[in-house]
């Protein structure tokens, strides 16, 4: 069964090949159905694999399936091989499962688009690359997937490339990601230079023998995190994600919320041994995560574009995940990754459903009162919001609470990390309910034409919402913490992957009973505080946006400059533009392009080409077509060789 | 003097016998049944090739020597046999196109093709110069006929005549060389020649003879300056025949040359390195430069095949087992991508009386015929040596072997040549996808067998570019056999 793991990435690959070869002439939804079926098959295979994995004893749940030897040059030898363990299994299930639902949704959402087939080709390519990323058993193969998803992200953000802004957004995402990829690539070089291998198992077992805080491990960990920060939109490389919303909404849901942007979190969790041995780097991860969580949440408070609010929310939630993996609570980070995949995909797709109804307008200031017009969208989006806000009983509550508790008590945790997280949680609740109230409550503020077209989305779009709503509701129950009487199956499932880290940290896997007892009361207390903060924010959001009031305007006016600073996203884009982009552009244009490229490089290349062309024409004069001449050349060759031999 | 009965081990030549039987069957059957379908005849040819291929794999684990030293079936020979059979298989498949429909009516086309295949196999599964000569002649005579197979067309006849005249010329040099070698050592078997030379007293006759043998095969492999026939013959011959000649014949020539320089007349007798290096530089450079100025795709591929012979020479000059293994790997790739490319040319057919052979006739096909265009683009990328295609890895192995033998300047020249070649390969791809035709070519529905050939070649080209492991392992074993 494990030998067939290659089937999982194969299905989307086949889907895209079929669509690439045949889909372009078929009108209608066939390409979408083929693409969805391909991902559905992957998901079915993944579920089968999951049960197969469960049958193994917990300690043996690491299966490596080599497919073939890929590169063998000198001492470097890299295989294309899959690694199946609880961590990659969770990722495979999330990626294939959520992708499948979003694929189906996209059939409805993209219906009638001129690029319908192209869209599903890219989407399948994305799923393929993402699966390569999460199933790789070495850094190089992971990098292939990493670059693959980056390419797909670029292609899909700029999907409607006829619009200048979309093309710009795609380019921006690509360029910013290159900075991160550069860090990742340097990390790979350094890993190879240090360990002489890129294989996960090998690297981590060798690393485990090194002392804690070894300089080279810290360097590797930091470089890997540069890559993670690029892909997962953390400070200071987050700037591409809000613009990435230019892509079609299913893309935002799939790539820029549920799967690709979490690749960085996965990478840190995968390299947990290295981060455990490099506490400084781990602290950097946690701090960057915390700052990002807070920073992005504040921007989320002020935005009016429904997708942008969700984009900043994604950045903020990714920050949470990095807090988790940064403080050494890898399982908690992955747990939040999973629940976030459910509710954020749901929120985006619900937002897409709203846009669908609102003739593709995204400004919340012209929405309102949609609750009665599109009840399915409203209820599912409300469930997603309750989940992200961390209302008890919803999935987000369990995962967010786990991270916050670990931020306080975890291996590298600290009370102030918890405090930042708690404040960000309160802000999250506020901006999410602001979104709900502005969109679904009050009265519609759109023009008559839009109002006339207003309608609930078709079943092919709402059923995926309902499925994800159910998952957002119950997805957390796999990881009920001990303090609430659960046994945290999720963490136990993942434990073997992080066993080496736990051992290095010198923490016995089960821990002392006494520590738990004192911990429990504190944990409950912190949980209570966060809950109070969240409920207060909810009430505040109702005060500001739930009723008709001039409170928002008054507050904005009172805050004045501070409000404008946040509303304009701290002017970070402008700052980057002025400090990096413009000077770079100026140097590139005047020196690199007009002088070095045009004069020197092009000049020499065109010169060479002209020379080669002239030489070729001279040579072809020898090819006369007369057979006697051919024989003559032959004889000259014979003579030349004999002369060489004997003279 | 004691006489002993010659050792006859027929099992060693099972593949050859199967191919020969199929060839005879194909030549005889149409005499009795006049209206046999082409598909039926092709099925016989394909079945023969498939059976021979199976026999080759069967022999892989039981190599041997027989017929009193006249037949050498080592893994080196078997690897080449498999290569030829693959080439023959693809050639049969791509003869299902609209041009050959008119000409290839009879069994003798496939019969002659299998005879040529038989000649190739005889030629490479021996280390005895007389048997090599036998194989060479069986091959050549079949090819002379095949080159002129479209007997109503002047260019086809011109191709056949030029090939015949110059082929006879080259064979003369080869025979003369063999005679000199025999005169110097009294031997015709390669290992014996080497022993006799090592015993001393061979004088200048042996190197001179070896050089003339080299020249004889330099003609078949189309090395500069013995290449002049290539463009004319490749252009005039029926496209499947060109495909077969450009791959099978070239491969066989390299098999003999590899044995010549590493067994019969090793570097102790002649410093092969500089000779082969100079030939390599000439061959690559002339091939690539000439290909640039061609406007006819078939002619472009003819010069490209000269250039590829130059790349192969780079690894031959290296003179090590890695080089021989790389040559095998590259020839496999080359067989797939080159026959694939010729298959597309054959598929495109003609409009009116004129074959569609110019670059312009490929304009705008990319979106009309996505699969065939994709395949052609992949073959072009592979020929240019761009990853992830096999052409890249193949070139990499060739040049790596030369680097290991410290032929650094030679490799630099080879890499620069590969850069030049990108121009004319990409020119075709640009025409496929980025140029609009005023009146796009109408190629009609492709025959399923031709599509099958393209699928096989395409999968092979990608597979060998991504996962070289298994095949390379087998070729490494072949490269050390009997050397």
Helix content range of chain B:
over 70%
Strand order of the largest sheet of chain B: 1-2
- Biggest sheet of chain A, in brief? 2 strands, antiparallel
Question: Which series of helices and strands of chain B comes N to C?
Answer: HHEEHHHHHHHHHHHHEEHHHHHH
Radius of gyration of chain A: 28 Å
Apparent shape of chain A: globular
User: Most extensive interface: pair and counts?
Assistant: A-B, 33 and 43 residues
Binned strand content of chain A? under 5%
Strand share of the residues of chain B? Answer: under 5%
Regions with little confidence, pLDDT below 50 for 5+ residues of chain B:
none
Count of domains of chain A: 2
The class by helix and strand makeup of chain A works out as mainly alpha
Distance between the termini of chain A: 69 Å
Task: Provide the fold topology.
The complex is a heterodimer of chains A (647) and B (483).
Chain A: H1 7-22, H2 30-55, E1 63-73, E2 76-84, H3 86-109, H4 116-135, H5 139-157, H6 164-195, H7 200-208, H8 215-231, H9 240-243, H10 249-258, H11 263-270, H12 272-277, H13 279-300, H14 306-326, H15 330-357, H16 370-373, H17 375-389, H18 395-409, H19 415-440, H20 448-453, H21 459-474, H22 489-504, H23 513-546, H24 551-559, H25 561-567, H26 572-620, H27 627-646
Antiparallel strand pairs in A: 1-2
Helix pairs in contact in A: 1-2, 1-4, 2-3, 2-4, 3-4, 3-10, 3-15, 3-21, 4-5, 5-6, 5-10, 6-8, 8-11, 8-13, 10-15, 11-15, 13-14, 13-19, 14-15, 14-18, 14-19, 15-17, 15-18, 15-21, 15-22, 17-19, 17-21, 18-19, 19-23
Chain B: H1 14-32, H2 38-60, E1 64-66, E2 71-73, H3 75-94, H4 100-103, H5 107-124, H6 129-147, H7 154-185, H8 190-198, H9 205-221, H10 229-236, H11 239-264, H12 272-292, H13 297-318, H14 321-348, E3 350-351, E4 354-355, H15 365-368, H16 370-384, H17 390-404, H18 408-433, H19 448-466, H20 469-480
Antiparallel strand pairs in B: 1-2, 3-4
């Amino acid at each position: 069964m494990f030998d067939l793991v290659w089937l999982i990435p194969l299905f989307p690959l086949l889907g895209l090949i079929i669509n690439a070869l045949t889909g372009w002439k078929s009108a209608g939804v066939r390409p979408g159905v083929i693409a969805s079926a391909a991902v559905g098959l992957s998901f079915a295979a993944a579920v089968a694999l999951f049960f197969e994995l469960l049958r193994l004893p917990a300690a043996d749940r690491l299966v490596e399936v080599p497919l073939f030897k890929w590169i063998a040059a000198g001492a470097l030898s890299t295989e294309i091989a899959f690694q199946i363990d609880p961590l990659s299994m969770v990722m495979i299930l999330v990626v294939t499962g959520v992708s499948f639902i979003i694929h189906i949704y996209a059939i409805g959402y993209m219906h009638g688009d001129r690029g319908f087939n192209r869209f599903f080709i890219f989407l399948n390519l994305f799923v393929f690359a993402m699966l390569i990323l999460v199933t790789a058993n070495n850094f190089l193969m992971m990098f292939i997937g990493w670059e693959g998803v980056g390419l797909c992200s670029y292609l899909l953000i700029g999907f409607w490339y006829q619009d200048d802004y979309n093309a710009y957004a795609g380019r921006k995402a690509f360029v910013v990601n290159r900075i991160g990829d550069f860090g990742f690539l340097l990390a790979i070089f350094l890993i190879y230079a240090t360990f002489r291998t890129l294989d996960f198992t090998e690297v981590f077992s060798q690393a485990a023998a090194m002392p804690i805080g070894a300089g080279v491990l810290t360097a590797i960990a930091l470089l890997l995190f540069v890559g993670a920060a690029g892909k997962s939109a953390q400070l200071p490389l987050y700037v591409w994600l809000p613009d990435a919303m230019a892509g079609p909404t299913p893309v935002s849901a799939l790539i820029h919320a549920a799967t690709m942007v979490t690749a960085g979190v996965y990478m840190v969790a995968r390299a947990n041994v290295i981060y455990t041995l490099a506490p400084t780097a781990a602290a950097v991860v946690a701090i960057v995560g915390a700052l990002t969580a807070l920073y992005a949440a504040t921007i989320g408070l002020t935005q009016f574009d429904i997708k942008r609010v969700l984009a900043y929310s994604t950045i903020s939630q990714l920050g949470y995940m990095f807090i988790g993996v940064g403080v050494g609570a890898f399982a908690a980070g992955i747990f939040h990754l999973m629940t976030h995949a459910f509710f954020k995909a749901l929120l985006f797709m619900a937002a897409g459903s709203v846009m669908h109804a609102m003739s593709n307008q995204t400004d919340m200031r012209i929405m309102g009162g949609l609750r009665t017009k599109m009840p399915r969208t409203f209820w599912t989006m409300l469930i997603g919001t309750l989940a992200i806000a961390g209302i008890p009983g919803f999935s987000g509550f369990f995962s967010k609470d786990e991270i916050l508790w670990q931020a306080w008590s975890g291996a590298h945790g600290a009370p102030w990390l918890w405090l930042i997280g708690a404040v960000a949680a309160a802000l999250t609740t506020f901006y999410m309910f602001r979104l709900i109230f502005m969109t679904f409550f009050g009265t519609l503020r759109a023009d008559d034409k839009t109002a006339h077209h207003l309608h609930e989305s078709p079943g092919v779009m709402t059923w995926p919402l309902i499925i994800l709503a159910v998952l957002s509701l119950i997805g957390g129950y796999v990881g009920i913490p001990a303090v609430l009487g659960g046994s945290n199956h999720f963490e136990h499932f993942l434990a073997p992957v992080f066993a080496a880290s736990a051992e290095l940290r010198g923490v016995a896997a089960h821990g002392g009973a006494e520590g738990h007892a004192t911990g429990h009361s504190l944990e409950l207390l912190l949980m209570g505080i966060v809950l109070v903060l969240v409920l207060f924010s909810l009430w505040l959001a109702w005060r500001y946006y739930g009723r008709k009031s001039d409170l928002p305007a008054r507050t904005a006016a009172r805050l004045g400059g501070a409000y404008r600073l946040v509303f304009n996203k701290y002017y970070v884009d402008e700052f980057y533009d002025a400090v990096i982009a413009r000077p770079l552009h100026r140097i590139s244009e005047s020196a690199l392009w007009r002088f070095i490229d045009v004069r020197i490089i092009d000049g020499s290349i065109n010169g060479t080409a002209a020379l080669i062309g002239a030489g070729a024409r001279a040579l072809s004069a020898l090819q006369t077509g007369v057979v006697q001449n051919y024989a003559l050349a032959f004889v000259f060759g014979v003579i030349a060789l004999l002369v060489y031999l004997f003279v | 003097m004691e006489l002993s009965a010659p050792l006859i081990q027929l099992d060693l030549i099972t593949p050859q016998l199967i191919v020969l039987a199929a060839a005879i069957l194909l030549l005889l059957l149409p005499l009795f049944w006049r209206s046999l379908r082409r598909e039926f005849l092709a099925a016989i040819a394909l079945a023969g090739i498939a059976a021979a291929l199976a026999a080759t794999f069967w022999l892989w684990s039981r190599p041997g020597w027989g017929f009193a030293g006249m037949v050498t079936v080592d893994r080196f020979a078997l690897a080449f046999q498999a290569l030829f059979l693959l080439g023959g298989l693809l050639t049969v498949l791509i003869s299902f196109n609209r041009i050959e429909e008119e000409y290839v009516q009879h069994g003798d086309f496939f019969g002659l093709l299998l005879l040529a295949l038989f000649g190739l196999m005889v030629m490479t599964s021996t280390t005895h110069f007389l048997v090599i000569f036998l194989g060479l002649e069986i091959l050549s005579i079949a090819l002379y006929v095949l080159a002129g197979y479209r007997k109503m067309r002047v260019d086809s006849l011109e191709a056949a005549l030029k090939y015949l005249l110059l082929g006879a010329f080259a064979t003369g040099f080869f025979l003369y060389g063999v005679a000199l070698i025999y005169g110097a050592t009294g031997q015709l078997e390669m290992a014996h020649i080497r022993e006799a030379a090592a015993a001393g007293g061979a004088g200048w006759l042996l190197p001179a003879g070896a050089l003339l043998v080299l020249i004889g095969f330099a003609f078949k492999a189309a090395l500069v300056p013995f290449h002049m026939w290539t463009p004319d013959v490749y252009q005039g011959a029926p496209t499947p025949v060109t495909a077969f000649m450009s791959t099978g014949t070239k491969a066989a020539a390299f098999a003999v040359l590899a044995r010549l320089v590493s067994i019969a007349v090793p570097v102790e007798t002649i410093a092969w390195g500089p000779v082969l290096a100079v030939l390599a530089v000439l061959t690559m450079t002339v091939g690539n430069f000439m290909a640039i100025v061609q406007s006819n795709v078939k002619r472009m591929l003819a010069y490209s095949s000269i250039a590829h012979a130059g790349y192969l020479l780079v690894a031959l000059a290296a003179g090590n087992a890695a080089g021989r293994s790389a040559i095998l790997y590259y020839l496999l790739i080359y067989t797939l991508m080159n026959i694939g490319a010729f298959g597309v040319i054959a598929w495109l057919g003609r409009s009116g009386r004129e074959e569609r052979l110019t670059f312009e006739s490929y304009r705008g096909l990319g979106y009309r015929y996505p699969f065939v265009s994709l395949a052609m683009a992949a073959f072009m990328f592979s020929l240019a040596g761009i990853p992830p295609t096999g052409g890249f890895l193949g070139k990499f192995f060739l040049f790596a072997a030369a680097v290991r033998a410290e032929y650094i300047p030679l490799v630099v020249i080879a890499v620069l040549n590969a850069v030049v070649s990108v121009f004319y390969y990409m020119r075709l791809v640009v025409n496929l996808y980025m140029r609009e035709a005023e009146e796009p070519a109408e190629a009609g529905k492709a025959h399923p067998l031709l599509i099958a050939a393209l699928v096989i070649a395409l999968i092979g080209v990608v597979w060998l570019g991504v996962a070289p492991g298994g095949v390379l392992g087998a070729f490494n074993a072949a490269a050390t056999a009997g050397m």
